[in-house]
Amino acid sequence: MIKFSHYIYKNVMSVFSTDLKQTEDSQVETPSRKTKFDYNPRFLEFIELFARIGADSRLFPKKCSTCGREYKSFPEYIHSTESLANGLADYSDVLDVPRTMQYRNCRCGSTLTITFTKDVYPLLDKFWEMLGKVSKQSSRPLPEVISEFREQCSRYVTEHDPSQSGQ
Ligand SMILES: [Zn+2]
């Protein structure tokens, strides 16, 4: 796992959290009851949209064809599968319909692929554009930025799983 430091995001976080679906402690500066995490503000809009996928019937339930395990929602998929290196790939240039593939491993070891098209994730173009910009502006390689995004997105989706929090 890649370890992420806090970077400089702390200071700008409060600007970005206005129209998000808030949990009570998200804007509080004092240490909150749970581990507080500073999401990259440039990622947040996109992370939230991924979180909203939830149990989108176009993607879920997702069944592992090897072991038969069923993943009912995106949070469950994120939570119960294992992240893979380079597990998020943009295929907008090579295929007719732009799509983004996410690969994660089922507990049985088989790879489960989720395909995001614009129907499911309307900001697909902007998403890759944003990653490219962040990479350029911070002089970090794109895969590193993608990894960071995935890390934060997984964290957010798991933390904001409606079926877990009772919201
Ligand atoms: Zn499986």
Topology:
Elements: H1 13-16, H2 41-53, E1 62-63, E2 70-71, H3 74-80, E3 82-90, E4 100-105, E5 111-116, H4 124-138, H5 142-159, H6 162-165
Antiparallel strand pairs: 1-2, 3-4, 4-5
Helix pairs in contact: 2-5, 4-5
Characterization of this structure:
- The protein has a three-stranded antiparallel sheet, covered by helices on one side.
- The longest helix is centred in the C-terminal third of the chain and has 18 residues.
- 37% of the residues lie in helices and 15% in strands.
- The chain is an alpha+beta fold.
- The two termini are 30 Å apart.
- The structure holds zinc ion.
- Zinc ion binds next to loops.
- The site of zinc ion has 7 residues, from loops.
Short description:
The chain has 167 residues and is an alpha+beta fold. It has helices spanning 13-16, 41-53, 74-80, 124-138, 142-159, 162-165; strands spanning 62-63, 70-71, 82-90, 100-105, 111-116. It has 6 helices and 5 strands.
Spans of 5+ residues with little confidence (pLDDT < 50)? Answer: 1-26, 28-32
Task: Give the CA-based shape.
Answer: globular
Read across the widest sheet, the strand sequence of neighbours is: 3-4-5
* Tally of domains: 1
Q: Which structural class matches the secondary elements?
A: alpha+beta
Continuous helix count:
6
Termini separation: 30 Å
Strand content: 5-15%
> How big is the Rg?
16 Å
Q: Tell me the number of strands.
A: 5
Bound molecules: zinc ion
The assembly state of the depicted protein chains is single chain
Largest sheet, in brief, is: 3 strands, antiparallel
